[in-house]
Amino acid sequence: MFHWCPGRPIESVLMSRQQAARAEFSGHIVICVISTPGSQIVGLHSFVLPLRSAVIKPEEIRDIVILSDHAFMRKEWQYILNLPRINIVRGTALNRADLRSVTLNTCKMCVILGAPSTGVQMVNVDNALIDKSVILATLNVRAMKFSEDEAVEMVSSQPPSEMGSVSETDSMYQQRKSMQTRARQTGYEVPLITDLIRDTNAQFLDQDDDDKPGTEFYMTQPYACGRAFAGTVLDLLMITSFFNPVIVNVFRTMIFGGASLELEKILAEGAGLIGGTNISKPAQLKNQVLVNQFSISSGPLSVHAESTYGGLFIDALVSFGRLCLGVYRKMDPTDDSSRAAKRFVITNPPEDFILDPTDLVFSLERPEIKTVDPKKGLTAFLSKREE
């Protein structure tokens, strides 16, 4: 199930550069689609649907701001018009004024997509030039600098969401406040993912990468850091699912939090989301999970900082029902400069892997586990022993 709202015309969500700047988005997701009115659709509904899964609480839904050509978005809009809290800003990621208007320095994530041209236009195009637009847009974001006024943490002035009530409780306010994102001073600090048609073009995304020419895509820094995605990744997943069909259920659960086969058939036939009284209600939670990211520098699991990953894995699973998947580590934990924002993923580290206090951990969690019990875990056990 997904969060659903009545369909609305695209004119109701279109915003100019000035309107977007006044909206003062914070903690939102920016999708930059490099397109022209004649470009083919990229299937934005497949990207947006997991972000509107009913597993996500209404107060935790993040705004989605799409920066693209409005004529192109008219072709995509019919597939996402029933999903709430989506805004479309006229512009392009190749224009820094447009990027500033969507408050890129306070976004939670920025994704750059390239809408493919028609087959006739792609004939005799060099492989290095196929991703020219998305590479230029990526370098454009990286080169941006934000003033001190823009770097001040923004106070949320957004109206209540379409899914929430007008009266906001203290817990809802604290939740909304925690979703606000620290403002950044340079474009290099902006979390960014670039979609590439040719994986060999990953070498052009960052001039500071130390990858040698010809390095396999899965061994490059952009891929290891989660800053690049290519269609070859899907090819590998298809091969894996052919030899191990069960893995498809794992992918479905991690992306959607659990989805029914009936709903997938409806979406595959092109009917889209059909409204009803139950579509926005949370589904049964017993088979649903959430992919989460937590820091070990604070909280009940902070005792494992500078300790082994094996101890963290057991304590998180037994005490809190969290299944750790891997570590998100800084390239240089001792560097406090803006370049230190670069991190890379270590999937399933060995048991004796030493954790750093700056590490973030990916985990699978049950949505019905609302809070972490401070009386559980190794931290609580050690404090009792000291008493």
Question: What descriptive keywords fit this protein?
Answer:
globular, 4-stranded antiparallel β-sheet, 7-stranded parallel β-sheet, 15% strand
Description:
30% of the residues lie in helices and 15% in strands. The chain has a 7-stranded parallel beta sheet with strand order 1-4-3-2-5-6-7, with helices on both faces. It has a 4-stranded antiparallel beta sheet with strand order 8-11-9-10, with helices on both faces. The chain has 387 residues and is an alpha/beta fold. The protein has helices spanning 17-23, 44-48, 70-80, 96-101, 127-130, 132-142, 148-151, 170-178, 221-224, 231-243, 246-256, 261-268, 309-320, 377-386; strands at residues 14-15, 29-34, 64-68, 86-90, 109-114, 192-196, 228-230, 290-295, 323-330, 343-347, 360-365. The chain contains 14 helices and 11 strands.
Mean pLDDT: 78
List SSEs in N-to-C order.
EHEHEHEHEHHHHEHEHHHEHEEEH
What is the tally of helical segments?
Answer: 14
What is the strand tally?
A: 11
Shape: globular
| Fraction of helical residues | 25-40%
Query: Structural class, judged by helices and strands?
Result: alpha/beta
Oligomer: single chain
State Rg: 22 Å
Strand content: 5-15%
